[in-house]
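Practice problem: predict the structure.
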Amino acid sequence: MKRPMPQNGTDWETLKDQMSSLAEGDMDWRNGRTGMYVFYAGEDVLKVAKEAYTMFMSENALGPLAFPSLKQMEDDVVGMGLSLLNAPESAVGNMTSGGSESIFLALKTARDWARDHKKFDGEPEVVLPQSAHLAFDRASHYLGLKTVRVPLGPDLKADAEAMGKAITSNTIMIVGSAPCYPFGLIDPIEELSQLALSHDVWLHVDACVGGYFAPFARMNGVEVPAFDFSAEGVRSMSADLHKYGYAAKGASTVLYRADELQRYQIFDCEDWPGGRMVTPTAAGTRPGGAIAAAWAVMNYLGVDGYREKAAAVVSTRQKLQEAVAGNNRLHVHGDPLLGLIAFGSHELKIFSVYKKMYERGWFTSVSTDPQGIHLMLTPAHEQVIDDYIADLRESVEDVAGNESQADEMKARYS
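Answer:
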């Protein structure tokens, strides 16, 4: 719908009031009652991210000669990510606008690498578990690739044996998640690594959620299985900084085992009057603020700060997991190790429980197969988890007493 632009400008104080009014219907994520979309690590971290972002909000990382500061900060951020994820000295990477772009670039790079190293007798294919993020389907749609989704094992993790049977001469990539978004479970990356090596196919690990969480959870004693470049068959990874890296949106990293792989990501062209253009990512303009905020937050928190945040999230998830396990009408989907958790019920319509929780002021997500309530926990939830558990107990009892209140729901992004 067309809207006319105002003829005259409006002063900032008036506009700020209007924007505050528009936001009155938004979820208040600072109060810890929102279990998705926002990763809130406290006002101090938010202040660092905001101020760093505004310092460089006008700078453009497309021009490293003009803004070497941004190149240095991006190199530092990528280097820290590679170190955390056990990459070899040959490893390289870039910052991107988010997990979707990181996944897109990894697929594009694998496709172009395969064109030089493989022979196809049909459409290039990507083999992935049913729980892999839909960003792979979207990227494959753009890139002319066929996605082959494989059913999960009984533990709701990728079934390496079944994925192996799905590999054909047209397979250019197999995928594992660390963890998957729907259930927060880490796929058997070591098994997938051996599978990739035996078939000489590209293995991408989607660690958009866990890349900047799992290493610190492991430092705290959580028995996190191998999920990163320590598995020899992993050629690329995606890891989001604006999730558990607590950086400003949008900031992610796409990482490669070696630069001879990454070079297939680069766009390099001079066939126009404007001269040669070399871009590492899908974007042209690359906002300097997102790079600066990620650099600032990572240096502000350091290893000790991230370990502290990870410990708070893990203990909160454990408390909720124990409460769910202790309720004979509920059960946790799988055995999560990090900050995501999904739980359902064999006895109740779980979406009815979700509605009751929503009415009590809790805004979270759902999973659909199997059906469940889905939460992505952050340090902010540590202070409200007891309230959540108490409301969950009451909501379960409400639904158990009146199952006619059952509601059909569909999970969607819009």
